[in-house]
Amino acid sequence: MAGRKQFDGEVVLDAAMVQFWRDGYADTSVDDLSRATGLNRSSLYSSLGDKESLYLRCLDRYATRYGDRYDQALSGAAEEPLRAVRAFFDVTLRRIADPGLPDGCLIAQTAMAIPALSPAIAGRAVRALDTQRARLRAALTAAKLPTCEADDFAVHLAAVNQSMAVMSRAGASRRQLRAIVDVSLGALAQALHRNRGPRP
């Protein structure tokens, strides 16, 4: 049919996302995106917008994909908070260990580049980080941590999660990353025990 797109938009967005994830926004050119997606410049612009618009779409795609997995991991926090938070970190560790994906985290590397990025991209990265803290806060509140401790642990656990992605790019081993998770879970276990109410 005349005018019908001859490519799979989902596949193209994934290819663009991996390209940005691997090299970052500044170091990815339109030619890089063209090679990664198999689309020429004209098709890229007409179908997906300019480089910034495409990056925003990729950030949203990344945040939704892994956000859904984090939400699923934390869904049992009210009953088994430590197991749920470990499952949350396992989402990141599996992503880091996947040989088919770049190292690190697209959101984390975007956040680190904020001084050089547009307000639109910076704002989207900040919102993604806020969303991760909010999902952790909700899970810890469901686990009956007091509000102030739930807030503090949400900030801490989100920071640990992002730092693991950064450290993986610097060559941290899986054992080292697991040790980071274990230390954080140990602190959380103490807080949960301290705040555990009397059993009915």
Automatic annotation (TrEMBL):
Protein name, entry field: TetR/AcrR family transcriptional regulator
HTH tetR-type domain ranges (all copies): 6-66
InterPro entries (alphabetical): Homeodomain-like_sf, HTH_TetR, Tet_transcr_reg_TetR-rel_C_sf, YxaF_TetR_C
DNA-binding region per UniProt: 29-48
Domain of life the protein comes from: Bacteria
Lineage: Bacteria, Bacillati, Actinomycetota, Actinomycetes, Pseudonocardiales
A Pfam family that the UniProt record links to this protein: TetR_N
Keywords linked to the UniProt accession: DNA-binding, Transcription, Transcription regulation
